[in-house]
Amino acid sequence: MLFEKHSTAALTEPSSKMTAQKGDNPLIWPLLSVLQSSNQSWKVHHLATELQNKGLMHDLDPLPEKDLFKRNFLLMNALYELQDILLPKQWLQVKSMEIQLFRIVPGNADLLHRQDAALRDYYLDWKNYDTCVNVVREMLESFWSSYQEYIGINIQLMNKGHALKVFELDETASDRDIRRQWKKLALKWHPDRDQGNADRFKEVCEAWQTLRDKSLVA
User: Is there a smaller number of Cβ atoms within 10 Å at the N or the C end of the chain?
Assistant: First the structure.
């Protein structure tokens, strides 16, 4: 790997609190758009540049080496989340220098998935981002704001009842139900999917903005 695992000494919140309060990584969906739009293999820093050009990646730390690490962490976190979301219908190969989306899942996908387990667990654990939980949440809120502007989401929060209806859920839905349905519907209606629909995707994103504060537990 190009990036060493960074020290977590700078954490100022208990690790359990970090895990419980993390938000959804909004880079998942623009990354899907980038990967769906091309059959080429990507490198992590090329994906970062592509998202920067779209106004969806920002400076994350005044120290260049820490900014580079945090940028890499966010991208790898989103890529591993997307890898799990797409399985078993598509295979997303996640290597720092060779990232590519395959429409046909390879026969040894389960083996490949298991081989990357330790690295995937590392990047899916927000404790390793090397910052306090409040900064992580503020950063993700900033990314969500940028993404809302990018895809043209209505900034007015949707009525909760309407949001649950969009998610095909009722008032008894648990945090896990809401989060699972969010990923399912966002993937189903993502405009770069074969059966996607941009208007439905925006509606799902707007519903998520209303419901997501209830669903911060993964």
Answer: N
- 174 Cβ contact list (under 8 Å, min separation 6): none
Tell me: pLDDT of 153 over 60: yes
State how far the Cα of 148 lies from the Cα of 26, in Å rounded to an integer: 10
Separation CA 100–CA 31 (nearest Å):
11
pLDDT in the model for residue 141? 82
Tokens 């909004």 locate to 26
Report the alpha-carbon distance of residue 22 to residue 41 in Å, rounded: 30
What token pair was written down for 144?
A: 């969500």
State the pLDDT at residue 131.
Answer: 67
Long-range contacts of 197-201 (CB under 8 A, 24+ apart): 198/151, 201/151
Distance CA(5)–CA(110), nearest Å, equals 25
Do you know the residue count of the chain? 218
pLDDT tens digits, one per residue of 107-126: 999 999 999 999 999 999 98
For 43, residues 6+ apart whose C-beta sits below 8 A from its C-beta are 96, 97, 98, 99
Stretch 184-210: mean pLDDT: 91
Q: Are 121 and 1 in contact (CB under 8 A)?
A: no
CB contact at 8 A, 165 and 202? no
Structure token pair of residue 115: 């081989």
**DSSP letter assigned to residue 193:** S
| Token pair of 172 as six digits | 């008894």
